[in-house]
Design goal:
It is a multi-pass membrane protein. Pfam families: BPD_transp_1 (PF00528), OppC_N (PF12911). Keywords: Cell membrane, Membrane, Transmembrane, Transmembrane helix, Transport. Belongs to the binding-protein-dependent transport system permease family. The chain has helices at residues 2-18, 21-38, 40-43, 82-88, 133-136, 153-189, 191-206, 209-220, 224-250, 254-261, 266-274, 279-303, 314-321, 331-358; strands at 65-72, 95-105, 108-113, 123-127, 137-142. It has 14 helices and 5 strands. A hairpin with a 2-residue loop joins β2 (95-105) and β3. α7 (191-206) crosses α9 (224-250), α9 (224-250) runs antiparallel to α12 (279-303) and α10 (254-261) packs antiparallel against α11. The protein has a 5-stranded antiparallel sheet with strand order 4-3-2-1-5. It is an alpha+beta fold and 362 residues long.
Length: 362
Amino acid sequence: MHSSNSSSLSKLALQKFKKDFWGVFSLGFIILVGLVAVFAYVIAPDNSEYANQMHVSIHSQKPGFKVNMLVLPQETANKQSVLSAMFFGNKVPATQIPISQYHIQDSILHYTEYATDGLQGLTKSIPLNGLSETNIIQSKTFLFGTDKYGRDLLSRILVGARISFFIGFIAVFISLVLGIFMGSVAGYFGGRTDALIMWFINVSWSIPTLLLVIAITLALGKGFWQVFIAVGLTMWVEVARVVRGQVLSVKKMQYVTAARALGFTDFRIISRHILPNIMAPVIVISAANFAAAILIESGLSFLGIGAQPPMASWGAMIKDHYNYIILGKPYLALIPGICIMSLVMAFMLVGNALRDALDVKT
């Protein structure tokens, strides 16, 4: 009876969620960003590792910029597997040189390297060695332009989605494991256990989040996984407080008293009877924590203690280009800023839709 009742409530919540246009739209957008994050190197025009091919001669070009590229295949054999290149980028990409003009004479390619600001590029020659013009000369369009190092901004945005998206998953997972454990133990057992855990929660709560993240990052070192762990360890407090409050109100219910009378263990009562009935507010707070994790990671990358170069990160991209806002090229900082804003707003809208759908009073 209990399971069928919970199943009907889940169906009712799902029906209510489906009626919320912005909730469903945001969920679709989040799934799309997730797919982009996983298959970034398949979609990105620059599939080198971290989309890090630099062409200083074409730095800070506007969206839609076109240029001819001389593509010289690598002499060393590329032993990288297809799956590795698909998920981690091409570790030995072909050498690309932007050129302004070229001509072929007697199987020798004569070309002039691209130069900006009215300068004349160097003129060089290389033998074709049986290669055709279509193989080594490619017209390349930079849809989002290039950054200050001459890297393809669109590719950096696509690859950078991976950090912003996955930090939400890992940080929320860590916060749920810690928060649910601490909150349920404090709420269920009460007394000195509750007082001790609440003291620890209040101490953690009193430390500014960014300061705590910086301290953890400095202790663990700068890097990709360190930031994930640091953000996760700062977000469990909210989950623990919510879970504790819910457990305090639920543990006096008749079905909990009946479970105790039947001699069930405390672990079974908490995991099988209490937690399934208090997950609605935890799911809602997890959606909000997703958004908060993305913002914290962006802030850390902006401060230079998040993901380290040459790794692509939306926060680091804003840090690299925020001074271009007053130099007439604001899109270099605005495009990653809009990406962060869109993803955070999508998670917040999904959180709001889940809150409305899981509210039994409505």
